[in-house]
Amino acid sequence: MAGQVATGSRSGLRSALPLLLPAYLWLTVAIFLPLSAMVFFSFMTELPLAGKVWAFTLDNYTTFFSQGLYWRLLLASLRLGLEVTLWCVVIGYPAAYVLAKVLKGRSREAIFLLVILPFWSNGLVRIFSWAMVLREGGILDTALNAVLPFKINIDLMYSYPAVIIGLVHSYVPYMVLTCYLTLQAIDDSLIEAGRSLGASRLQMLKRVIIPLSMPGLVAGAALIFVPVVGSFMEPRILGGRTGTFYGTVIEDQFVAVFNWPLGAALSFILLAVVLVILALASPVLKRAA
Amino acid sequence: MAGVQVSSLSRSFGAHKALDDVSIDFADGGFYALLGPSGSGKTTLLRQIAGFDFPDSGRIAIGGESVERVPVEKRRIGMVFQNYALFPNMSVADNVAFGLSVRGEAKATIASEVQRALDLVQLGKLGSRRPHQLSGGQRQRVALARAIVTKPRVLLLDEPLGALDKALRVDMQIELKRIQREIGITTIFVTHDQEEALTMSDRIGILRDGRLVQEGSPEEIYDSPKSEFAATFLGDANIFRGETTGTGIRLPDGTAIAAGAGATLAAGAKASCAVRPERIRIAADSGMSDPNANILRGQVSKRIFAGNNSTYFVERDRQTLKVIVQNTGADRLAEGQDVVLRWSPESTVLIATS
Q1: Which end of chain B has fewer beta carbons closer than 10 Å to its terminal beta carbon, N or C?
Q2: Which sequence ranges are marked TM in the entry (chain A) (predicted)?
Q3: What digits encode the pLDDT tens for the residues B47-102?
């Protein structure tokens, strides 16, 4: 029996090979090779361009540990990732619930489209439109002053809240989509069964719906947390001087300072830290899911 | 525990009348089947009694208390769903405990009540399992235990045996009936399976297009159906259509059929007669004579042998009649053979054509 299963899966792999090969070839060429080059760079003193002399070194990595600045920036970025993820849960989960369990047919499609829309618009356009809304004398400021009887000053531009707003806007669709999928899979009769047993809506949410949609929450959190920790576009444009994060420093190394080796080293440290966090969290998350 | 009274209940979804002026009295402690084809409104009625949906008009009372505007979580009913609807994130014991624990009962009380309920459905040892580790029949029992552990006033069952295979169904029918008797709870059971309705319930309500067609004990409905629909939906029936003579009908070809049961009608109106296939005697000739019996001649077109009985299809005057004969070892009739059918007027039910 066991032998049969083994041969079965081996021949299954062989027939699956033609289907897998294109994807893996592409991944090898497009991601693995450049990434290997980056690993290589991170151990060099100089970029081997224009005949510059270079040597192997660990300095790029020791810089991170010897200078408190990078530590502080990494912590700030991790905190930013955590906050953005939390806001995405707070905003995205209720929306996903309404989409999956309350709305039907046309209205669901329409609301869905509004959620997906940020995906389809260019990231820069999105961020600059936020800049127009958030700055002093911008749309939000003008609108509030037109409605309110007293004078207030709204100038969120170049602040931490502006960075959070921009990032949450960019990433909340991930949370909506992953939670929508798991909520959608919860049979309505489960909710009816719970109510027939006397459970209030809040009790149903706490004891049945949230536990059953945990896989979606976890997947959404992972999809949001990781890129936000390394993000640089939103912090730079909406954060101004307050928008210096780990991601913007890495970007600087590549596009401004041309210290690719340091930029590469910082990137891999970030990758390692994120992997460690996910590994530490996985037993907890698995139990919850 | 309590009886349920439904009076003049109506509910429409857009232009569709899902329930049209339905009134039924469900007696305290009874086992009641709501029987009907899909779309007949039986599930809508059950959901109204449960409180998942509110009526447009009419009244629902549980134990004499009006509940038609009370939401489901406050109605103190127990419900078993067709797909069981067990919480997959909880163990069997936690599923059964759910109703007690959301009420804030003490832990020790919950544990002993859950064990009692699981013992009642003969799953006492499986409390720590997860729903996905159970068979269909076991899940059904867990769903039942979960519904009755809170001591609801009424037990509502929405096609609870629909997902089980035939052998398991019969076991569960007996089991369900035993448990219902043991706790004496008023039970309302939705089904489209006429056999299930006949064998399990004290009373049956037949629904069609949102209306209650007939209501009564299984024997009453089977022996004296009040409409062609009731006659053919609950069991098999041969239907003859013609004009009434007051005590029977006259078929278009002039043959008279005497009826000993059913409606009293003024002569001349259109009416039908229903005869159950097992009430008809079939023979090769008109040897024995009973002056009162209804007699028809025809030809066997098909015979289906089913072991303990045989079904004959007999053609006469562009109509196919069905006759079921117990296997007594007597001579069997061949296909193509001319036969005489006879049955007593007492086996014939006169039905007004609406």
Answers
A1: C
A2: 23-41, 84-103, 110-133, 158-183, 204-226, 262-285
A3: 999 999 999 999 999 999 999 999 999 999 999 999 999 999 999 999 999 999 99
ipTM (interface pTM) = 0.83
Nearest-Cα residue of chain A relative to residue B94: A207
CB atoms within 10 A of CB B262: 21
Q: Cβ contact (<8 Å) for B72 and A200?
A: no
Query: How far is it, in rounded angstroms, from Cα A51 to Cα B334?
Result: 106
CATH of domain A67-288: 1.10.3720.10
Q: How far apart are CA B198 and CA B133, in angstroms?
A: 33
Chosen for mutation from B43, B53, B87, B146 (greatest number of chain A CBs closer than 10 Å) is: B87
For residue range A80-89, list pLDDT tens digits in order. 999 999 999 9
For B119, B131, B206, B286, the CA distances from B87, given in Å and listed in that order, are: 20, 8, 33, 65
Residues A68, B179: Cα–Cα separation, whole Å: 72
Query: Which of A12-23 are b and which e, b meaning 16 or more Cβ less than 10 Å from the residue's Cβ?
Result: eeeeeeeeeeee
Contact B55, B79 (CB under 8 A): no
Q: What phi and psi values does residue B190 have, to the nearest 5 degrees? A: -95, 130
* Inter-chain Cβ pairs, chain A and chain B, closer than 8 A: 64
Of B320, B281, B280, nearest to B298 by C-alpha is B320
The DSSP bridge pattern shows strands B256-258 and B203-208 to be unpaired
Which amino acid belongs to residue B237? A
Instruction: Please choose, from the candidates B198, B201, B229, the residue with its C-alpha nearest in 3D space to the C-alpha of residue B213.
Output: B229
Quote the domain boundaries for residue B83.
4-223
**Nearest alpha-carbon partner for B319 in B210, B241, B262:** B241
pTM: 0.81
Q: Where are the domains positioned within chain A?
A: 67-288
- CA B291, chain centre distance (Å): 37
Tokens 């911008």, residue located: A138
Domain count, chain B: 2
Place of tokens 């037993």: A283
CA angle B299, B226, B193 (to 5 degrees): 80
CA angle B272, B273, B275 (to 5 degrees): 150
In angstroms, the separation between the Cα of residue B81 and the nearest Cα of chain A is: 7
Question: Do B270 and B333 share a domain, yes or no?
Answer: yes
Tell which of B223, B257, B273 closes a domain.
Answer: B223
Find the farthest-apart pair of alpha carbons in chain A and give their distance in angstroms, rounded.
81
Residue with tokens 């090898």: A28
Compute the mean pLDDT over every residue in chain B, rounded to the nearest whole number: 91
